[in-house]
Amino acid sequence: MAASRVTVHFPCPVERVWQTVTDLMNTAWRGDLARVEILNETHFVEHTKSGYATNFTVTACEPLCRWAFTMENGSMSGTWVGIFETAEGGARLTCIETVNAKHWWMRPLVPGYLKRQQKRYLDDLRRELQK
Questions:
Q1: What span is annotated as the signal peptide, if there is one (predicted)?
Q2: pLDDT (tens digit, 9 = 90+) per residue, 96-111?
Q3: Structural domain boundaries of the chain?
Q4: What predicted TM-score, i.e. pTM, was given to this entire model?
Q5: Element at 57 (helix H, strand E)
Q6: CATH match for 1-22+59-128 among 3.90.180.10, 3.40.50.1000, 3.30.530.20, 3.40.50.720
Q7: Alpha carbon of 63 to those of 45, 51, 82: distances in Å?
Q8: How far apart are CA 131 and CA 122, in angstroms?
Q9: pLDDT, averaged across the chain
Q10: Cα separation of 51 and 39, whole Å?
């Protein structure tokens, strides 16, 4: 299992960070996604630009505080937790992600992949919030 915890500060209200992150209808700011398919209130599927699908199940939704879900695709399963806080001069978002590779040969690659994915996501989010 690989785990990553990243905390970032954004110079905008926590409400704006929450709305951007949790709005599955508006994900054009995500550079890695082609689309998001919303199945119901707690289930959605992200489709990457390369056509790979990942299934998500929301496990916690506490507005302006915490959003969490499980995720699974053919290569991995895991969890993601976002903790949203008001901070001096803006908002703080802590992302905690754990990933289990489904194939033994992928396990050494997962930590680096996880770091790259989180960096890309947070870079995309930062650009969106600066608009």
A1: none
A2: 999 999 999 999 999 9
A3: 1-22+59-128
A4: 0.94
A5: strand 53-62
A6: 3.30.530.20
A7: 21, 31, 11
A8: 15
A9: 96
A10: 18
Q: Mean pLDDT of residues grouped by 10 in the chain (131 residues)?
A: 95 98 97 97 97 97 98 97 97 97 93 93 97 91
Q: Token pair for residue 107? A: 């396990």
Burial class (CB in 10 A: 0-12, 13-18, 19+), 91: buried
For tokens 């489709």, the residue is 47
40, amino acid identity: N
Residue 96 has phi, psi (to 5 degrees) of -120, 120
Which tokens hold the place of 121? Answer: 């996501």
36 touches 49 (CB < 8 A): no
CA atoms within 13 Å, Cβ hemisphere of 48 = 9
